[in-house]
UniProtKB/TrEMBL annotation:
Species for this entry: hydrothermal vent metagenome
UniProt entry tagged with the keyword Translocase: no
Protein's recorded name: Molybdenum ABC transporter, substrate-binding protein ModA
NCBIfam families, per the entry: modA
Pfam families reported for this sequence: SBP_bac_11
Segments traversing the membrane: none
Residues in coiled coil: none
Length: 256
């Protein structure tokens, strides 16, 4: 009887611990550009699995540095593989948990009411040479879309001609909002940020060879996976989630 009571007690304690963990939920750090799609994914996950998600959005670099400094985080979504490599070197990723999920494209946007509809990437657009025109990109020091934008414009031979007019944004969504709200007439953002807005239009998509591949990856933080993280990973890999990514314009990356 004592042995049976001990087993029952162990099972009870284990179940109670899991319930507390599920009630606490998971803390997710995610690149700001992922917010629209990830909010929908989070809602469906919470309903399906009864596990709460608390999501902190910022630039991939800002989040990586917070994780490095010990911020509480269970899962990290990065819009740049460089920042994921950075955390791997710091030894904070759960071994084997890193995986590449989706890809994106880089575009130039403008306000919908301007007179320019398309641009030719063979030469720097004349409107960008106007000394009164400002241009928004993410801060390349920690915002992946800004890093890709600078890389693309340098490879195309544009950057030195317009760098004095660039307004650096704190994250990808801010670079987009500057243009959408009419504060700055043009900007470089992800293709997915430009979808669905009634106030802006895409003027052109940067040639793929002008910048590194825009790969969004996910990894877990800590020493090992618990049941909640395992269920979250399974959900992220599901066809349901892949369809959500597609709806928001992402390209699904094949798993090796």
């Amino acid at each position: 009887m004592k042995k049976l009571a001990t087993i029952v007690l162990i099972v009870f304690v284990s179940c109670t611990a899991n319930q507390k963990r599920n009630k606490r939920g998971l803390v997710v750090f995610a690149a700001a550009s992922l917010a629209p799609a990830l909010q929908e994914i989070a809602k469906q996950f919470e309903t399906a699995e009864n596990i709460g998600l608390k999501i902190n959005y910022a630039s991939s670099g800002t989040l990586a540095r917070q994780i490095e400094m010990g911020a509480k985080c269970d899962a990290y979504f990065s819009a740049n593989i460089g920042w994921m490599d950075y955390l791997k070197k710091k030894g904070v990723l759960v071994p084997g948990s890193r995986e590449e999920l989706i890809e994106n494209k880089l575009v130039i946007i403008g306000q919908k009411n301007n007179t320019i509809d398309t641009i030719n990437f063979d030469n720097i657009p004349e409107f960008l040479l106007n000394p009164e025109i400002k241009f928004s990109i993410g801060d390349p020091s920690h915002v992946p879309v800004g890093k890709y934008a600078r890389q693309a414009m340098e490879n195309l031979g544009w950057y030195n001609s317009i760098k004095a007019k660039i307004v650096f944004a704190k994250d990808a969504r801010s670079a987009f909002y500057y243009v959408e709200l009419g504060e700055i007439p043009y900007g470089v953002v992800y293709q997915t940020d430009a979808r669905g807005s009634q106030k802006i239009k895409v003027l052109g998509t940067f040639p793929q060879q002008s910048h590194g591949r825009i790969i969004i990856s996910m990894a877990f933080i800590g020493d090992s996976l618990n049941s909640s993280l395992t269920r979250f990973r399974q959900f992220i890999r599901s066809e349901k989630v892949k369809n959500i990514w597609r709806e928001y314009g992402y390209i699904i990356k094949s798993r090796n």
